[in-house]
Design goal:
- The protein starts with 8 loop residues before the first helix and ends with a helix.
- By secondary structure, it is α/β, with parallel strands linked by helices.
- The protein has a single domain, classed as Alpha-Beta Barrel (TIM Barrel).
- Helix 6 runs parallel beside helix 7 and helix 9 crosses helix 10.
- The longest helix is centred in the middle third of the chain and has 17 residues.
- It has 13 helices and eight strands.
- The chain has an eight-stranded parallel β-barrel, surrounded by six helices.
Length: 253
C-alpha cells in the first residue's frame, strides 16, 4: 500500500498544543461518572483514554458519549492475539470513531504489521484518517522482580527497548512506556515515532500500583509526546485545577 508508512510523527508533534498532550485515563466504571468528570473538565484537555473497566461496564456506546462531548478517544484495548483475530477486531474498532488504539508489542511483528495494515485498509475504504496505533511495552505496574518471575534474565529496560524496536520496525505509530524509559528509546530509535507515557505522578501524589513512574515535566524533558494521567485527576476535589497544574508543569519544559 502506498500510504502504509506511519503518519509522520514530526507533523503530528508540531501541531500539538499542551492540552493535546495531556490524556486523561477515565478509570471509572459508569457513564454518569464520566459525564460528571467531563463537565468539570470543561474541555481543558483534548483526549480521554477509555480502557477495559469502562468498556466492559458500559459497552462501546460510551465512546460516542465521550466524542459527543467534544473529546478525542484513546481506546486502551491492549490488543494481543493471533494476527487474523486482531485484524477482525480492528475491523470492528475502526467503526467506533476512536483516534488512538493500544496493542501489545509482545504480540510480535506479524501481529503488529497485520494490525497496521488492517487499520490503513479500513481507513482507505472509508476515506478516513487511520487511528494512531500505539505499542504497549512493559506495564508500569511491573518491575525487574516481576519480569524475573516470568523467566526473563534481563532487566525491564532491555525488555522495553526490544519490544519498542519490534513495534517501530513494524510501522507502529507510537510506543507506550514509563517516563523512565523515554530518553533511552529516543537515544536508540530517534524521533520518528510518538511516545505516550502512563506512570505520571507529582511528588505529592500517591503512587498507587505504579512501580515505574515520574513527574510530567520529567516525561516531557525525556522526550514524551503525550502523558497519561488517571487517578490523580479523577480523585481530585478540584479536577480542573489539577489539570492546570499538570499543564503548567508540562509547559515549563
Amino acid at each position: 500500500m502506498e500510504n502504509y508508512d506511519s503518519v509522520s510523527a514530526e507533523n503530528i508533534r508540531k501541531n500539538l498544543k499542551t492540552k493535546d498532550r495531556l490524556i486523561l485515563s477515565m478509570d471509572v466504571p459508569a457513564k454518569n461518572e464520566v459525564l460528571s468528570i467531563l463537565r468539570e473538565l470543561e474541555n481543558s484537555i483534548s483526549t480521554i483514554k477509555i480502557g477495559l473497566e469502562l468498556i466492559y461496564n458500559e459497552g462501546t456506546e460510551i465512546i460516542k458519549t465521550v466524542t459527543g462531548c467534544g473529546y478525542k478517544v484513546l481506546l486502551d484495548a491492549k490488543l494481543m492475539d493471533i494476527p487474523n483475530t486482531i485484524a477482525g477486531a480492528l475491523r470492528g474498532i475502526s467503526k467506533l470513531g476512536v483516534n488512538m488504539i493500544t496493542i501489545h508489542a509482545f504480540g510480535g511483528s506479524g501481529m503488529l504489521l497485520r494490525a497496521k495494515e488492517e487499520l490503513v485498509s479500513n481507513s482507505d475504504k472509508n476515506n478516513q484518517v487511520p487511528p494512531l496505533l500505539f505499542g504497549v511495552t512493559v506495564l508500569t505496574s511491573l518491575d525487574d522482580s516481576d519480569l524475573n518471575a516470568f523467566g526473563f534474565s534481563t532487566n525491564y529496560a532491555n525488555v522495553v527497548k526490544n519490544l519498542a524496536g519490534t513495534a517501530i520496525k513494524s510501522k507502529i505509530d507510537g510506543i507506550i512506556c514509563s517516563p523512565n524509559e523515554v530518553s533511552m528509546l529516543r537515544e536508540s530509535f530517534g524521533n520518528n515515532f510518538l511516545i505516550a507515557t502512563p506512570g505520571i505522578r507529582l511528588p505529592e501524589d500517591d503512587a498507587g500500583d505504579q512501580k515505574r513512574f515520574n513527574t510530567p515535566e520529567k516525561a516531557i524533558e525525556n522526550g514524551a509526546d503525550f502523558i497519561i494521567v488517571g487517578r490523580p485527576i479523577i480523585k481530585s476535589a478540584d479536577k480542573i485545577g489539577t489539570v492546570k497544574n499538570y499543564l503548567d508543569r508540562m509547559e515549563g519544559n
